[in-house]
Amino acid sequence: MEVVLHILQQYELFSNSMWQYLLAACYFIVAMIALHIFRSIVLKRAVTLAKKTKNQYDDAVIAFIHGLQSKFYISISLYIALQHITMPQRVMQVVSVVLLLLVVYEIIHAIADFFDALVEIYLGRVTKKGRGHAKAMLRILRSFIVAILWVLVILVILSNLGINVTAFVASLGIGGIAVALALQNVLSDFFSSFSIFMDKPFQVGDYIAIGESSGTVRYIGLKTTRIETLRGEELVMPNKEITNAQIQNFGQLKRRRESFTFGVEYETSKKKLESIPGIVGHVIKKNSIVDFDRCNFSAFGDFSLNFDCVYYVNSNQFIDYVTVKEKILFAILEEFTKNNIGFAYPTQVVKLQK
User: Fold this and answer.
1) Euclidean distance between CA atoms 310 and 294, whole angstroms
2) Is a pLDDT exceeding 90 seen at residue 255?
3) Under DSSP, is residue 256 helix (H, G, I), strand (E, B) or coil?
């Protein structure tokens, strides 16, 4: 055994004895085994805990651990093994940078998988009509985060290699300002689109009114939002204008309130006048999606006795609202005709004196 050890220590290759290479290989194998055991234990524990909990965020943690592939563990094990081998400083520096890049690549890839898992959890809670816009915005956010991480990593690596990155960072700042000024309108629309995504003043499928324009939202893009008007035209509006305007969102309606007034003739008897609220209430209550609120004698008009009525339509669909309104008006007209109650209209009585 001593002879073998002596031989291994005697023969050298690139300023390292065979014994050093053997030790480095042992450190590499031990590190690989230890890291894989650690990964297996952590992953097994995480999966066990995930089965016991109802939330889905632990699935994102599992996705992060799964995202660390074999290159991550090989790179760390190689770095540990190379610490026991003598190498030229420049070569060691280059090898360390390459291994660091591999480790960082795997970590960023795992972070991206973690973010994707969180996105899937979030999209599962978003309504189907708003899922497309949310997915597009989150993909952009993911790419932006990954890009920032890579820029930071590259700057750190360049700094460790002895390269002065101060001037580079300053030039990036100046270039960023120039690009931002050149793309001011585009960036304004982009951040407005992100604002729409975060604040959710409306979603695809909602009927909205912006100023004098109104229609159904068909698409929310990075720069523009497309609205289908009642005449079937496509209205393309910049997102910046939308976020700066007052928006009426009819798609969020739970029910619609309808208030109307009608007048009957002054010649109508008191008994018939007292029966009118009951007649109107009975007619309105016949509709299953309508909640009757009130009907009251409200005023003595110039030529009529006026009644105010209020009811609620339990639907956010405009077609349901106008259909129910039409049925109610026809039914009121029919009941008044049966009860010989006449609607008033502008009249004048001219008295002649002799």
Assistant:
1) 5
2) no
3) strand
Q: Is residue 174 part of a domain?
A: no
Cα diameter, the chain = 152
Question: How far, CA to CA in Å, does 239 sit from each of 32, 137, 209, 232, 252?
Answer: 52, 14, 14, 21, 20
In this prediction, residue 129 carries a pLDDT of 61
Burial class (CB in 10 A: 0-12, 13-18, 19+), 163: exposed
**Tokens (6 digits) for 191:** 């951040």
> Token pair 């002596």 is at which residue?
6
Whether 312 contacts 253, CB under 8 Å: no
Distance CA 183, CA 187 (A): 6
pLDDT at 161: 66
Count up the domains in the chain and report the number.
2
- The CATH number of the domain holding residue 321 is 3.30.70.100
Report the distance separating Cα 111 and Cα 63, nearest Å: 9
How far is CA 124 from each of CA 130, 142, 354, rounded to the nearest angstrom?
11, 18, 86
Tokens of 323: 């259909």
The string of pLDDT tens digits covering residues 298-309 is 999 888 999 999
Cα–Cα distance for residue pair 175/27, rounded to 1 Å: 47
Query: Is residue 35 situated within a structural domain?
Result: yes
Residue-number span of the structural domain to which 27 is assigned: 2-125
CB 203 within 8 A of CB 217: yes
Strands 16-17 and 12-13 turn out to be antiparallel
Q: What percent of the chain has pLDDT over 90?
A: 21
Task: Say if residue 311's pLDDT is above 90.
Answer: yes
As a whole number of angstroms, the distance between CA 119 and CA 142 comes to 9
**Is residue 325's pLDDT more than 90?**
yes
CA proximity to 242, closest of 260, 219, 225: 225
Instruction: State the amino acid at position 305 in one-letter form.
Output: L
Sign, Cα dihedral of 194, 198, 203, 209: negative
Identify the bridge partners of residue 264 per DSSP, sorted by sequence position: 305, 343
Decide: 296 and 310 in contact? Cβ < 8 Å.
no
